[in-house]
Amino acid sequence: MGMPDTARRYTVDEVLALPADGNRYELVHGELLVTPAPSQPLDFSSLPAYSRSLLKIQVPVRVILASRKESLKDIVELAPGTIIKFDKACDELLHLHVGDQPVAEGEAVKVGDKFGFRVLAMLMPEEHFLKVRRTKAG
Fold this sequence. Notes:
By secondary structure, the protein is α+β, with helices and mostly antiparallel strands. It has helices spanning 12-16, 49-54, 72-76; strands at residues 24-28, 31-35, 61-64, 94-98, 101-111, 114-122.
C-alpha cells in the first residue's frame, strides 16, 4: 500500500503572489520548486571601477536544443509544416552557451507561459595547451 499523493498543487497566480525574498520560485507541473537565495551575495565592490564596468556588458546567451548539418538543397526546400528530425533524445540535457562557449547544462522548464532553463551542472572550459619548444642559443 503506497502513500497517498498529498503534495499541494500550485497555480501560476499563487506563485506570482509569493514574496520577493530573493528565492527563485518555479512552477513545474503544478509543483512548486524553490531555489534558495545565495547565502552571501557576490560582492564586486572591491574591484576597480573599470572592472566593475565590464560586468555591465551584455553578452548573447543561448540554449542549444539540438543541431545538425543539412544540405543547402534541404534548406531551400523548407516550408511551413516541415519537420526536421534530430538525433538527440528528448530527455538529454540542453546546453547553455554564453557567446560561443558552453558554460552549463540543464533542462527546459516552464516559467508561467514562458520557456526557462534550469542549470544542473556547470561546464569547465576546454584547456588549450601549446607545445613549448626550446630555442637554440646562438
